[in-house]
Amino acid sequence: MKVRLKQLALALERGNLLIIDDLKGRKLARRLGLKIIGTLGLFKTMKLKGLIEEIKPVIEKLRKKGFYLSNDLIDRLLRDMGEK
User: Fold this and answer.
1) 18-70 confidence digits (pLDDT tens)
2) Strand partners, 37
3) Are residues 32 and 43 part of one domain?
4) How many domains in the chain?
5) Is residue 43 located within the same domain as residue 76?
6) Which residue, among 73, 69, 8, has the nearest Cα to 35 in the 3D structure?
7) Which of 5, 14, 28, 84 is buried deepest, with most CB atoms within 10 A?
């Protein structure tokens, strides 16, 4: 909870976009009026801007490091981005 509160406080202070995946944190951020994006949304934006060619290899690297991402969300994103 401490990390989430620090992230929220910093985003509020600076008026920045908050990158957050935690459901409770996202709900609170929305109530506070913050603009938010999740990890997968960030990858989508990066691909659309040409900063990465493919999302799937990036996701695979994160998963190998123990980062949890929903299979359903990944499948939907990859399908939407023409990678599946």
Assistant:
1) 888 888 888 888 888 888 999 999 999 999 999 999 999 999 999 999 999 89
2) 19
3) no
4) 2
5) yes
6) 8
7) 28
Question: Is the same domain home to 25 and 51?
Answer: no
Q: Do 19 and 46 share a structural domain?
A: no
Q: Is the same domain home to 25 and 44?
A: no
Q: Which domain holds residue 33?
A: 2-37
Q: What span, in angstroms and rounded, lies between the C-alpha atoms of 44 and 33?
A: 23
Three-state DSSP string of 10-51: HHHHHCCCEECCCHHHHHHHHHCCCCEECHHHHHHHHHHCCC
The Cα–Cα gap between 18 and 8 comes to: 8
pTM here is: 0.79
Residue type, 43: F
Quote the CA–CA distance of 34 and 70 in Å, as a whole number.
Answer: 23
